[in-house]
Automatic annotation (TrEMBL):
Protein name: Peptidase M20 dimerisation domain-containing protein
Listed InterPro entries: ArgE/DapE_CS, Peptidase_M20A
Assigned keywords, A-Z: Hydrolase, Zinc
Gene3D superfamilies xref list: Acetamidase/Formamidase-like domains (3.10.28.20), Zn peptidases (3.40.630.10)
SUPFAM superfamilies linked to this entry: Acetamidase/Formamidase-like, Zn-dependent exopeptidases
Highest classification ranks of the organism: Bacteria, Bacillati, Bacillota, Clostridia, Eubacteriales
Signal peptide positions (record): none
Amino acid sequence: MMNKALSMEMEQLTKDLVSISSVNGTSGEKKIAEFIESYLREIPYFKQHSNNVIIQSLKDDKLDRRNVFAYIKGENNNTGKTIMLHGHMDTVGVDDFGGLKEFASIATAETTDEALTIAMEKLVKFFCDNDDMDFYDAGFLCGLYANLEISQVVDPLKTARMAIDEEIVNPILKKILKKY
């Protein structure tokens, strides 16, 4: 069984990685590479073997994107085996989202209520800017986006509240609508 500290570190690393908008063809690709390089260089093995983290810049790339490689050489029993670390870091493009592009990268909120507020603020602004949307579309998107936002902050191994009572929504919605 994995120890608790390692499990928590892996969870935090995952949250940190997905919070970086690394959409293909954007400066986010460089940002995520820099984050991964920095993270690797803090690992004790790579502090002792700094040359085992290799950065390969893409030639003539306007976004200064790069690949990150790392390797761990086997030291026990003189096996000569090596583990190479490398993988895709960017995420797919978001052009398919059309007018909802800004919702493709969701910031992580700390609480379910904060996630709901973030979702509603973004949606109210979107609906105010797009008056051709009908009520059905608005309701569907509100529910979908709220679920996406909440899923960012709720432990997937625990039950999540997927239906939101009016007494929770109405005060938040009234507060948000005052801004518009």
